């Protein structure tokens, strides 16, 4: 629409496909189960899922049944794992009706899934998460074998997979992750003794996949899949993993300068007059605020990218606007501004979301998913 607010997100689907190719390379023959929860980490789950399918991705994972149902409504036919599981028999029935694969986190869910399967008149596939050290979701190790036996012995449920989640694979010290793998391997060995061998066995998230040979060599032999999330979108779980893969940012949060004013030394900018110019300067106003996903904490810190240069924030972030100290640069009304991602010019600079998150004392995960729905997503 002509004259519309210039703030938008640019989504680079070629970068997404390239990052998926990197994940597949690191997976070394294991199946890549792509995580597209939280609306594809803020990128648009349907758009992301379609491009991943075109790139050869065989399976997807979401957090909720509703997220899976959205993909089904858009015609996504790939197998979809629901990591968050189900919370009652109605949701179990919806998962079955949508041909989703829910995760069992506790024994009581087996009853709901059994009821749903009988009501639908067909066998339902499920996976089981085992808690080996995250202490968040998943069946406790002491109970896991019993849960696996109940599912495997059911006449209306199929044990499609089993997995665990690494709590500290993004740390340089891999010892905690190695201990988790030992616990998981021991459980898998017990399950094999009882002839329980699920089709899918997976452990590695993005951090686990990027961690390198030390972790990869300790993986149980039965592990045949990986489930990356963040790295598919071009961001790293931790800075020390930077050399492990060539990733390109998929999301760029962009806007334009809509006003420029000159201010004298000592003049305040923004709410509360918490920022004052130390010398005469120029202030650019950009229609991008905390309602769009910019952290409010960037008062007195943080930068944006204009014409290949980093320029600092000046004053508090408002709900709909930010102000930048552009000093003596030639920046003018209409110039593009990048909060994170790459500039629109073909040879433009890139401001990594990880670097912005570090300034905000946050993480790339949070900045990507907090970009609000009022910010239009565009391909480009």
Structure description:
With 380 residues, the chain is α/β, with parallel strands linked by helices. The protein has two domains: 13-233, TIM Barrel; 251-379, Lyase, Ornithine Decarboxylase, Chain A, domain 1 (Beta Barrel), CATH 2.40.37.10. The protein is 30% helix and 22% strand. The protein has twelve helices and 20 strands. The protein has helices spanning 13-27, 37-41, 45-54, 65-73, 89-97, 108-120, 141-152, 175-193, 206-210, 213-217, 353-359, 364-369, and strands spanning 8-11, 31-35, 59-62, 80-82, 101-104, 124-129, 157-163, 200-202, 225-226, 251-256, 259-263, 268-269, 275-276, 281-286, 303-306, 309-312, 322-325, 336-342, 350-351, 377-379. Strands 8-7-6-5-4-3-2-9 form an eight-stranded parallel sheet. Strand 12 and strand 13 (275-276) form a beta hairpin. Helix 5 crosses helix 6 (108-120) and helix 7 (141-152) runs parallel beside helix 8. It is elongated. The chain starts with 7 loop residues before the first strand and ends with a strand.
Q: How does the helix and strand content classify structurally?
A: alpha/beta
Shape: elongated
Rounded to an integer, what's the Rg over CA atoms? Answer: 24 Å
CATH superfamily descriptor of the largest domain = Alanine racemase
Q: In this structure, how is the largest beta sheet organized?
A: 8 strands, parallel
Spatial sequence of strands, sheet with the most strands: 8-7-6-5-4-3-2-9
CATH architecture term of the largest domain: Alpha-Beta Barrel
User: What is the residue-mean pLDDT, rounded to a whole number?
Assistant: 95
CATH topology annotation of the largest domain:
TIM Barrel
Count of DSSP H/I helices:
12
Percent of residues in helices comes to: 25-40%
Summed up, the domain count is 2
Give the class-level CATH name of the largest domain.
Alpha Beta
Number of strands: 20
Beta percentage is 15-25%
Uncertain regions spanning at least 5 consecutive residues: none
Distance between the termini: 17 Å
């Amino acid at each position: 629409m002509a004259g519309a607010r210039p703030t938008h997100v640019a989504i680079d689907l070629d970068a997404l496909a390239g990052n998926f190719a990197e994940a597949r390379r690191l997976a070394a023959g294991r199946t890549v189960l792509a995580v597209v929860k939280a609306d594809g980490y803020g990128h648009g789950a349907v758009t992301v899922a379609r491009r991943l399918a075109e790139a050869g991705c065989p399976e997807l994972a979401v957090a909720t049944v509703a997220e899976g149902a959205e993909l089904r409504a858009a015609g996504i036919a790939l197998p979809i794992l629901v990591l968050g599981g189900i919370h009652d028999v109605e949701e179990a029935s919806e998962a079955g009706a949508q041909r989703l694969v829910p995760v069992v986190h506790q024994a009581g869910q087996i009853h709901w899934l059994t009821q749903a399967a009988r009501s639908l008149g067909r066998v339902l596939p499920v996976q089981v998460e085992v808690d080996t050290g995250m202490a968040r979701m998943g069946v406790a190790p002491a109970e896991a074998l019993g849960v696996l036996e109940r599912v495997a012995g059911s006449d209306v449920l199929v044990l499609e997979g089993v997995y665990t989640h690494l709590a500290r694979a993004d740390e340089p010290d891999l010892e905690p992750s190695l201990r988790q793998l030992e616990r998981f391997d021991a459980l898998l060995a017990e399950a094999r003794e009882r002839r329980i061998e699920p089709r899918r066995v997976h452990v590695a998230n993005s951090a686990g996949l990027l961690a390198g040979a030390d972790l990869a060599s300790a993986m149980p032999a039965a592990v045949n899949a990986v489930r990356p999330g963040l790295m598919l979108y071009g961001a790293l779980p931790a800075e020390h993993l930077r050399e492990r893969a060539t990733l390109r940012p998929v999301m760029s949060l962009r806007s334009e300068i809509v006003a420029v004013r000159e201010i004298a030394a000592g003049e305040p900018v923004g709410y509360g007059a918490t920022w004052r110019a130390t010398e005469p300067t120029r202030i650019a106003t950009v229609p991008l605020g905390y309602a769009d996903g910019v952290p409010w904490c960037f008062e007195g810190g943080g930068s944006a990218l204009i014409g290949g240069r980093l320029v600092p924030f000046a004053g508090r972030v408002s709900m709909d606007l930010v102000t930048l100290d552009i000093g003596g640069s030639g920046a003018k009304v209409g110039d593009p501004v990048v909060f994170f991602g790459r500039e629109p010019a073909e040879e433009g600079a890139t401001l990594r979301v990880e670097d912005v998150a570090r300034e905000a004392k946050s993480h790339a995960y949070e900045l990507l998913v907090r970009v609000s729905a009022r910010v239009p997503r565009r391909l480009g």
